[in-house]
Amino acid sequence: MNRLQLVVSAVVLAASTLISVPLSAQDWAQAKLKQSPRHREWASIKHDGRSVETFIVYPEAKNKKPVVLIIHEIFGLSDWAQELADEVAAAGYVAVAPDLLSGMAPNGGRTSDFPGDKVTEAVSHLNPEQVTADLNAAADYGLKLPASNGKLYVVGFCWGGTQAFRFATNRADLAATFVFYGEPPAKEAMTRIKAPVYGFYGGNDQRIDGTIPDAIAGMKTAGKMYQPVTYDGAGHAFMRNGESPDAKEADRKARDDSWARWKELMGGR
After folding, report:
1. How far apart are CA 77 and CA 88, in angstroms?
2. Helix (H, G, I), strand (E, B) or coil at 98
3. Total-model pTM
4. Are 182 and 202 in contact (CB under 8 A)?
5. Which whole-number Å values give the CA distances from 111 to 24, 54, 63, in the listed order?
6. In this structure, what DSSP letter does residue 249 have?
C-alpha cells in the first residue's frame, strides 16, 4: 500500500468511526443529568398494542405543576433530550419525554439500542399516525400524574419542532405550543389549532426560515396566534449546540434568550 492509499484509508477509518458514534450519546449531557437532584423515572406507556418508553422528570415543588410534553429531535431521545427534560423540570414543570422509537430498534429496543447512525433514518420513517397516537398517550399519562395540575404544553426541536406544530392540529387541550426550528403543518390543518403557537428559529437556518412566511400567512388566514422569533447568527439546533462545551457564541446567546422567552411564556403555572 502506497502513501496515498494509507492516507485515504486513514480518512475513511476516521469517518467511519465518527459515523459509528450516535449523536444520541453526549457525554456532557450525561454528566449534567447525573448531577441533577430531581427525581427521574421511566414509564412504559401502553396503547394500541404498543409500549412507549417515556422519560419523566419531576420538579422539586410542593404544588401541582403543568406538564410539558417534549418531542425529541431526529436523533431520537438522546442524552441531550433527557438532559433538556431535566432543565424543564428545574424550571418548575413535569417533563414528559416519550421515546418515539420505542420498539423500533433491534430486538424491540429504543433510541439507545440503535447501532451507529441508524437512528435518524428510523425517525424519518416513523408513521405520522403512530407518532400522534404515541404523543397523545404520553400526554394523557402525564396529565393523570398526581404531580400534574391538568395544564398541558408541548415543545419540539428540529424534527420534533415540526411534530409539535403538527400535534397542535390534533390536540385541542394544549395551553400553548413551542416550535423550535420546525416546519409548519399543511395550511388546511391549521384551522384545527386551538392554542397559541410560538416559534424559535436560528437566523442562519434558511432551510427552516424559508417556511416562516407561509406559516405566518397560513396561521393568519386561519385566525390563529403564531409568534415566531428569529435569533441572529444562530444555526439550526441552537438549543443543543448552544449548550455544548464548544458552542458558538451566537448559538449560546440564542439558547439563553430562547430559554428566557420560553419560560416567560409559560409563566402562568
Report:
1. 15
2. strand
3. 0.89
4. no
5. 7, 11, 33
6. H
